[in-house]
Write a structure and sequence with these properties.
The complex is a heterodimer of chains A (223) and B (391). Chain A is α/β, with parallel strands linked by helices and 223 residues long. Chain A has 7 helices and 10 strands. In chain A, helix 4 crosses helix 5 and helix 5 runs parallel beside helix 6. In chain B, the strands form 3 sheets. A 6-stranded mixed barrel of chain B has the order 4-5-10-7-9-8. A 4-stranded antiparallel sheet of chain B has the order 3-12-1-13. The model of chain B has no long low-confidence stretch (mean pLDDT 86). The chains are: A alpha/beta (223), B alpha+beta (391).
C-alpha cells in the first residue's frame, strides 16, 4: 500500500525555486498494476525517486506499507530499498564486469543472505525471465531485451513488495518491448504491485489504472 | 560481506589489469627497495660481526709508545696473567718481509709471537702444529702460514714440511691455518700472513727487540670493560700514570660500534625506501579516486539495489588494500629473486630478513587503508540519484 499525501519536492536552481512535485497525492493498493504517465518535466522521475526511497520529500507524508518514510535517515532508506523495492530502469543499469547471475545476486548480497540461498534465488529468477541458459553471459554479450530481462530478474530476486519500472521499454524496439511488457503482466498475475512510469500512451494503457502527472500534480485518468 | 567485497575487488582489479599493475608498481618498487636494501645491510653486518667475533670477543690488544724506561720484557709478560683476570698473553710484533717459496715471491705480513697467540686470536689450524715454547727458546726458524700464503707462495695448502725464505733466511713450515673467508680479511687487503717465534723475528727485523711494544691478551671472563680497566690500571702503574704511554684496543667495542653504524645505515636506507612506499600509496589513492569517478554509475546501481554506505566503503577500501597487498607480495617475491641473484653473483650469502618482510607487509596494509579511506569515503557518500544519472 502506497499513500502519497500532499508531497512536494522543491529544487533550487540559482535563485529560482522549482517545484518538481507540487502537493501530489495518490494511493496505490497492493497487487495493483499502475502506470504513471506524463511529459518530461512533469515530475515523473522525482515521484519515482521518492517512491523508491532514493530521495525524500520536502513536504507531505509518504506511507509505504503503513510506515511513514518521510523522516527516515539514509541508513533506514537503504534498508527499505533493499527489502521492499525492485527497480527496473530504462537503461537496464547492469554492472558491466559481472555476469547475469552475479548481477541478479547483487541485491541478495546486500541482504546478507547465505551464498547457497542467494544462488538458488538468483537462478530461480533467471529461469522465470527465461535466461537461465545465459546466466554466465556478461551484459555486453546480451541483447537489449535480454539485459532488461536480467534487470527484471534482479528486481524479482529480493521478492519486493513494490516493482518500480522507469520507462522499461524506452530503449527497446516495439517487439522486444512487447516481450518485456508480457513479463510485467506475468509478475502482476502473481500478485505483485507494479508501478510503471512512461510517456508512451500505448504502454500506459496496458496497466489497470493510469495516473497522469502534470506540473508536479498527480491526476487519475479513466482507462 | 567481507568475502563478497574481496570477490568484487578482485573482479574489478582483474577487469583493469594494466592499470592495476601500474598502480601496484609504486608499492612493488617501494617494497623491493626496502626489503633488498635492509636485507643486504643486515647480511653485510652479519658477516662483519661474525668475523669480528671470530677474532676473539675477549681480546684486548695493547701497544706501547713510551715505556718510561721500564720496558715490558718478553719474560715480564707472564706477570700480567698472575691475578687471574687475564687468561692468556702473547706478544705480537708485526713486520713485513719478502717471502719466496717454490712457487712465487710476495711481500707478506710477518708476526712474531708465542704459543698462546693461537688461542687468543681464535685461529684454527688446518694441518701441522702452531709455535711452541721450545721454538721460542731455540730461536727456531719455523713458521706457521695462513692458507692464502701457502697457496700463493708454495702453490698448495698442504705445505707442511716445505721451506720458505723470509728476506733470504729459510724457515720450515710447521703448520698451515684454516682458510678464513670472512669478509673483513678480504677487505683489509694483505691476506698473506706468517707467524714465527718472537725470538726469531728479533733476528730478522731491526725494529723488533726483547722490549715488547705490542701484545695481546684474552680476558678470562665475559666482562670486557672490567678487564680493560684492570689492564689499564696495571699499565698506568707501570708507566707513571701516563695515559699517553700506551693504547688499548678492545675488540668487543669495535663490534659494538660496528653494530651501531650498520643500525643507523639500515634505518637510513629503510627510511628512503619507506618514502618510495609512501609515494606508491599516493599512486593508489590517485587511481582509486579516478576509479570512483569512473564507476559512479555502478555505485548508483549498487545503492539502488540496497547497498548502504558501509557496504560501498568496504568494497573500495578492500580494493585499495588488495592492490597494496598484492603489490607487496609481488615486491617480496622480486626481492627474494634479487637477493638470490646478488648472493650468486657476489658469491656471498644474503637472506630475506623476516623482520623486514613482516614490516613491509604491515606497512603495505597501513598504506592501503590510509590511502584507500578517502576515495572509499567519497564513493560511499555519493547521492544515488545523481550517481545513476552519471554517464
Amino acid at each position: 500500500m502506497i499513500i502519497f499525501q500532499d508531497i512536494s519536492k522543491i529544487y533550487r536552481i540559482g535563485d529560482e525555486e522549482v517545484r518538481a512535485l507540487n502537493h501530489a497525492s495518490l494511493h496505490i493498493f497492493p497487487g495493483e498494476f499502475v502506470s504513471i504517465i506524463g511529459p518530461s518535466g512533469s515530475g515523473k522521475s522525482t515521484l519515482m525517486n521518492i517512491m523508491g526511497c532514493l530521495d525524500t520529500a520536502d513536504e507531505g507524508q509518504y506511507l509505504l506499507d503503513g510506515q511513514s518514510v518521510s523522516n527516515y535517515t539514509e541508513q533506514e532508506l537503504t534498508r527499505i530499498r533493499s527489502r521492499k523495492i525492485g527497480f527496473i530502469f530504462q537503461s537496464f543499469n547492469l554492472i558491466g564486469n559481472m555476469s547475469a547471475l552475479e548481477n541478479v545476486e547483487l541485491p541478495l548480497i546486500y541482504q546478507k543472505l547465505p551464498a547457497k540461498e542467494r544462488k538458488d534465488r538468483a537462478l530461480d529468477a533467471l529461469k522465470k525471465v527465461r535466461l537461465y541458459e545465459r546466466r554466465n553471459h556478461k551484459p555486453n554479450q546480451l541483447s537489449g531485451g535480454q539485459q532488461q530481462r536480467v534487470a527484471i530478474a534482479r528486481a524479482m530476486a529480493t521478492q519486493p513488495s513494490l516493482y518500480l519500472a522507469d520507462e522499461p521499454t524506452g530503449n527497446l524496439d516495439s517487439n522486444t518491448g512487447y516481450q518485456i511488457m508480457q513479463l510485467f503482466h506475468e509478475l502482476h498475475d502473481r500478485g505483485n504491485t507494479i508501478i510503471l512510469i512512461t510517456h508512451d500512451e500505448s504502454v500506459a494503457a496496458q496497466a489497470d489504472r493510469s495516473i497522469r502527472m502534470k506540473d508536479g500534480r498527480a491526476k487519475e485518468v479513466a482507462v | 560481506m567481507i568475502l563478497q567485497s574481496v570477490k568484487m575487488a578482485i573482479t574489478s582489479i582483474l577487469s583493469n589489469k594494466l592499470r592495476s599493475l601500474l598502480t601496484m608498481l609504486g608499492i612493488i618498487i617501494g617494497v623491493v627497495s626496502l626489503v633488498v636494501l635492509v636485507s643486504l645491510v643486515n647480511g653485510a653486518t652479519g658477516s662483519i660481526t661474525d668475523s669480528i667475533n671470530a677474532m676473539g670477543n675477549n681480546l684486548l690488544s695493547v701497544s706501547i709508545s713510551d715505556d718510561h724506561g721500564r720496558p715490558v720484557k718478553l719474560t715480564d709478560l707472564s706477570a700480567f696473567t698472575d691475578d687471574g683476570t687475564f687468561f692468556r698473553i702473547a706478544p705480537a710484533a708485526v713486520s713485513t718481509a719478502t717471502a719466496s717459496g717454490s712457487y712465487a715471491e710476495e711481500s707478506v705480513q710477518l708476526t712474531g709471537t708465542t704459543a698462546a697467540y693461537l688461542d687468543i686470536q681464535g685461529l684454527e689450524l688446518e694441518s701441522g702444529r702452531f709455535l711452541m715454547k721450545p721454538d721460542l727458546d731455540n730461536h727456531s726458524n719455523v713458521v706457521v702460514v695462513n692458507a692464502d700464503l701457502a697457496t700463493e707462495i708454495i702453490g698448495r695448502t698442504d705445505a707442511v714440511g716445505e721451506t720458505i725464505r723470509f728476506n733470504g733466511k729459510s724457515f720450515l713450515i710447521i703448520g698451515v691455518l684454516e682458510e678464513d673467508d670472512s669478509s673483513i680479511n678480504a677487505m683489509s687487503g694483505d691476506t698473506l700472513r706468517a707467524y714465527i717465534p718472537y725470538t726469531s723475528l728479533i733476528r730478522l727485523s731491526d725494529s723488533v727487540s726483547l722490549d715488547v711494544t705490542s701484545f695481546c691478551v684474552s680476558a678470562s671472563g665475559d666482562d670486557m670493560d672490567a678487564a680493560e680497566s684492570r689492564l689499564e690500571n696495571m699499565l698506568l702503574e707501570r708507566f707513571e700514570q701516563d695515559e699517553d704511554a700506551f693504547s688499548i684496543f678492545n675488540q668487543s667495542s669495535v663490534a659494538e660500534s660496528m653494530d651501531s653504524v650498520t643500525g643507523t645505515l639500515s634505518l637510513l636506507l629503510g627510511g628512503i625506501a619507506g618514502i618510495s612506499l609512501l609515494v606508491g600509496g599516493i599512486g593508489i589513492m590517485n587511481i582509486m579516486l579516478v576509479s570512483v569517478t569512473e564507476r559512479t554509475r555502478e555505485i548508483g546501481i549498487r545503492k539502488a539495489v540496497g547497498a548502504g554506505r558501509f557496504a560501498i566503503m568496504l568494497q573500495f577500501l578492500i580494493e585499495a588494500l588488495i592492490i597494496s597487498l598484492l603489490g607487496c607480495f609481488l615486491g617480496i617475491g622480486i626481492s627474494w629473486t634479487v637477493i638470490r641473484a646478488i648472493s650468486v653473483i657476489g658469491s656471498a650469502d644474503y637472506h630475506l630478513s623476516p623482520g623486514i618482510v613482516l614490516l613491509s607487509i604491515a606497512f603495505s596494509v597501513g598504506i592501503g587503508v590510509l590511502f584507500g579511506l578517502y576515495p572509499a569515503n567519497r564513493a560511499a557518500k555519493k547521492n544515488p540519484i545523481e550517481a545513476l544519472r552519471h554517464n
